[in-house]
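#struct-queue
[09:14] JT: dropping the first one here, sequence first, then the structure tokens:
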Amino acid sequence: MQTMAAVARVPEGDFSVEEIEVGTPRAGEVLVRIAGVGVCHTDLIFRDQFAPYPLPAVLGHEGAGTIAAIGEGVEGLAVGDKVVLGFSSCGHCPRCDEGLPSYCRTFPPLNYAGMRLEDGSKAFAKDGEDISSHFFGQSSFAGHTITRARNVVKVETDAPVELLGPLGCGFQTGAGGVMRSLAAAAGSSIAIIGGGPVGLAAVMGAVIQQCATIVLVEPIAARREIAQRLGATHVVDPNDGALAEALRAIAPDGLDYVFDTSGNVGAIEAGLASLGSHGAIGLVGVPKRADAAISVNISALMTPGHRIIGIIEGDSDPQTFIPELLRHHAAGRFPFDTLIETFPLAEINAAIAAQARGEFVKAVLLP
């Protein structure tokens, strides 16, 4: 069948919106009609080859829509089901068995190879040219896509399905980082560095966890205001001066947790310096340089028992955590939809530019 897709053809170049061919779902796969797909910084990282990915490619990994066709052997799903697409995992390694599929032993090839691992085939083509697919198992910058049935989370919600895709990555990363990875305790203090989609989801997660002190560090004033509406107790503009001193002024005994979404080395080191006894800092932000590194004084880390935690996808199991977030949304505790601005898929490049300028928090594309 034919579908419209945003194709990445050259690093750092605009996406090209084209009509391409989509194959039929094979055994264990489903065809999904995409209703909406979020734009994530990770899509641009792979387009620009910060992390290698075979081009041309259909990227996109925050898709949601309805099942359009089912491959052989797929159980528990039916045509017409509303679904959110998550990342891919094997389902049988020790980490998957532990309920931590984002640390699956085969996560990199399943999500970053650009093809089916079984035979190297791709789900997309145009005029005889193969186009890389299965990005994060889904490649959802398209009107239709093929994904493994394991990637699909069936949802029952009154929320518009076209807005649900970011639950599959950005929003579950932020909320999960606070609720699962750090498991922030009620009454605790936390600073969240960066007020983009992940950081603001972390603010909502901290409210759900009943943290007493919730600090957002963010240079854009509008996002600091959004954070306060969502429940942040303090906001800090990092351009106002020494960040560590500002955080210590809020929490003189040190913070229980810091959650960095920026990937900024200076901000991470300031967050680490702001931790209290046995405090933990969680890192989800991708740095601008692949060789970026932080400086850690070993004695200063050991003596107070500080912990540095790398986090992927908020330690989330999408099959259970996405429905949990939707229950919080229904109860008014996780209003993720208020952060979203929608654009036609054909306007993907304009949406990316506007999001980079900070005109809104989260772009969702409608094929």
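[09:21] JT: and here's the second one, same format:
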Amino acid sequence: MAQEISSEDYALVGLSLIRGLGPHKIRLLLKAFGSADATLGRPASDLLRIPGIGAKLAKAITRFSSLEPCRRQFEAASSVGAYFVRSESRTYPGLLREIFDPPPFLWMIQSDSFVWQTPVAIVGTRKPSSYGRHVTSKVAGALSERGITVVSGLAHGIDAAAHKTVVLQGGRTVAFLGSGLDKIYPRNHRRLAKEIVEQGCLISSFPFGTEPDATNFPQRNRLISGSSHATIVTEAYVRGGALITARFALDQNREVLAIPGPVTSPASEGANKLIQDGTARLMLTAEDILGELIPAARPGHIDSGLFRTLNPTISQADKNVLEALDYTPRHLDEICEDARCNVSQALDSLLNLEFAGCIQNCGGNLYARL
């Protein structure tokens, strides 16, 4: 069914298309003049009274007379099945309204049955280890089984692992984009984006046609944390978008949790440091968030442990080989040396451990713990 668009909707989109007008300035204009309709085309002398509106911006607002660019935005939305959602709409993420300067509107593509239910963000590095992928899938799956909406950013690595796990379980997951909804990024996640929409939602605060510029992603990260009860960092380097998202969450008075990783792994340095500094609360099981932060989550028993315990039937020789492995891939020669066994014995143990779900064969005689 076609969405009804008002003149105020057109005007609001028009304001967003003016370079230099962010959410904060748009809200100041709306507060001063009552509506976007009443703002566009207003005399520069009126606009210059608004804090942050200089001569250049006032001139751009005054001269914005054609609604054609706005119509093109709504046509682009219609072509991909997206909706225009103002901040006062019931469809707008409720928690996002509570942050400082939320976007006045969002573009959203969602399933007809989608509802926001206790959203929690999962973020991390674009280049995870096998350990990072494993714990991300475990925690995303545990949260999804309890009816929680998993929020992330559609990026490679941890984001993708979280989204894919929830999609496979038939749960709800939300992806915030750092581009227009017609510019899915990364491109090889277009299929994943379609799968997300079947049960969940794609969201962008950027106009259609916006390319995935690097400057867009901090703004996207702010919305990921702002729409969520809590942000979980599963694996992250010291520098990266995941830690930016964690800082936004703290600024928004939201909980931050981090899963510890191997001290030898650079990919875990960021999460470990968040815990060490007291910035994030240590997370070892899904119950760390389910029981305390989200009492409204759907009840029911789940296997919430993030770390797999050994099958008691595994032999001592297998355990020796397992102890020689790390969460980052190690070569067969190194494993043999540390486990003090020959290649044939090591391969037998590695096969047993792989069947037990304890390790991953990474190819090229490389193996890693799960």
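[09:30] RK: nice, looked through the second one.
[09:31] RK: The chain has a mean pLDDT of 89.
[09:31] JT: good to know. The longest strand covers residues 105-110.
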